[in-house]
Amino acid sequence: MDTQGLNPAQLAAWVRLAAVLELLPAALDSQLRRDAGLTHFDYYVLAMLSEAPEHTLRMTALAEQVTATLARLSHVVQRLEGRGLLERFPCPEDRRATNARLTEAGWQKVLESAPGHVTTVRATVIDALTAEQVTQLGEITDAILHRLDPDGAKKSLYQRYDPPN
Amino acid sequence: MDTQGLNPAQLAAWVRLAAVLELLPAALDSQLRRDAGLTHFDYYVLAMLSEAPEHTLRMTALAEQVTATLARLSHVVQRLEGRGLLERFPCPEDRRATNARLTEAGWQKVLESAPGHVTTVRATVIDALTAEQVTQLGEITDAILHRLDPDGAKKSLYQRYDPPN
DNA sequence: ACCGGAAGATTGTAGAAACAACTAGAATGC
DNA sequence: GCATTCTAGTTGTTTCTACAATCTTCCGGT
User: Fold this and answer.
1) Exposure class string for A145-159: b at 16+ Cβ within 10 A, else e
2) How many CB atoms lie within 10 A of CB B142?
C-alpha cells in the first residue's frame, strides 16, 4: 500500500474504507442483478424516477441525480426503454429536452425490487452498526462529501434527507 | 429513494454513504488516470506487487489481494505486461501457476504515482475528518467488513494494517 | 432579425468489465 | 496406474462505460 505520511490510525481507516469501497458496491450490485435483473445503476435510475412527480424527469435532471453524464444515461435509458420499464417523450416546454417517465411495468419493478435492496443495505451496513455509529457515519460521510462535491451539485439530493437535529 | 423501515438518521447516513460510494472511487480513478495514466485497478495491482517479496506474486494470490476474478486479472495483467510495467513467468514449483513480477519500469511507476494518490486520499478523506472521526471511521468500516466478508478472504489484507490499540 | 455560442440530447466507437467456455497440470481415490 | 476431480490460467464474446463528434434548439447581444 502507500504508507506515505499516514499514521497508523489513518492508514487502518483508509485500508478498511478502500475495502468497503470495493466490496459494498459489488454486493449491492449482485443482489439486484440476481433478484431483479437490474444493475445497481439501472435500479438507481428507476428509483429516482419513482420519487419524481408524475414519475417523470428531464434527462438532464435525472443525470444529475444519478451522477452520470448525459451520454451514459442516454444509453442506459435506451436499454430500459427497450425493456419497457420507462418511456421517453419530448418535453413540451423546451423542444431540445426529453422527458423520461416510468411505465407501469417500471413502477411495479421498483415496488418489487426495493424491499430486497433495502434489506441488503440493512444487513451489510445499518445492522452492523450501533445507533451512535450510524450518526457518526452520517457526519463522517457528510464531511467527505463536502470535499468531493464542494459546489454541491449532488448536495441538493442528499441534503433532502436531512440529518436529524 | 427507498425509505422502507429506515429511520431518519439511518436514511441520512445511507444516502450520504451511497453518494460517497459513487463519488470517491470516481475521484481516485480520475486523479490516477490523469496523473499516471493508470486505472485505479491498474494502480492497485502494481501497488500490491510492489509490497510483495521480490515484487512477485502468483496470479491467484494477486487476484485475491485485489479482489478480482482470475479472468479479469488476466486481462489487466496482459495489458500491463504489454506496457512493460510487469512480466509474467511460469512458476517453477507448480507448472500450472504463473507468477507476475514488477519490472523496473513498473516499480518506478509505483514510486512516482503513489504520492499523488496518497495526496488525493488525504485531501478527500483524511483531512476532512477529525482524529476522532478517523478512529470512528476505522471502527465503522471494520464492522461493515465483517458483514461483507465474514470468512475473511480479504480480511488478511486489511488486518495487516492493524488498528492502533 | 441574425449571428455566435450555450444547452439538451443522441450516436458511434473504442476501451474495460462480466461471464462462460476451454486447456493444462496436479491431487485424490480405488 | 488410471479415471475423476480440482486448481490455475487463458481466451473469446457480450455488455457496459467513457469519450468525442454531431445535431437541434434556445438565448443573448447588437
Assistant:
1) bebbbeeeebeebbe
2) 20
On chain A, the residues whose CB falls within 8 A of the CB of B138 are 9, 12-13, 16
- Pull the grid cell for residue B82: 504489454
A35-89 pLDDT per residue, tens:
999 999 999 999 999 999 999 999 999 999 999 999 999 999 999 999 999 999 9
Looking at the whole model, is its pTM more than 0.70? yes
Residue contact A23–B141, C-beta within 8 A: no
Q: How many CB atoms lie within 10 A of CB B73?
A: 21
Residues B126, A17: C-beta atoms closer than 8 Å: no
Q: What is the pLDDT of residue B149?
A: 80
Q: Does B2 touch chain A (CB under 8 A)?
A: yes
The owner of cell 466478508 is B149
Q: What are the domain boundaries of chain B?
A: 22-115, 129-159
CATH number of A22-115: 1.10.10.10
Q: Name the residue in chain B with its Cα closest to that of A115.
A: B4
- SS3 of chain B: the string is CCCCCCCHHHHHHHHHHHHHHHHHHHHHHHHHHHHHCCCHHHHHHHHHHHHCHHHEEEHHHHHHHCCCCHHHHHHHHHHHHHCCCEEEEECCCCCCCEEEEECHHHHHHHHHHHHHHHHHHHHHCHHHCCHHHHHHHHHHHHHHHHHHCCCCCCHHHHCCCCCCC
Protein contacts of strand C with Cβ less than 7 Å away = A 26, 30, 33, 58-61, 63, 70-71, 73-75, 77-78, 88, 91, 94, 96-99; B 39, 41, 68-69, 71-72, 75-76, 79, 94-96
Residues B31 and B117 sit within 8 Å (Cβ to Cβ)? yes
**Burial status of residue B110 (CB atoms within 10 A of its CB: 0-12, 13-18, 19 or more):** buried
pLDDT (0 to 100) of residue A5: 80
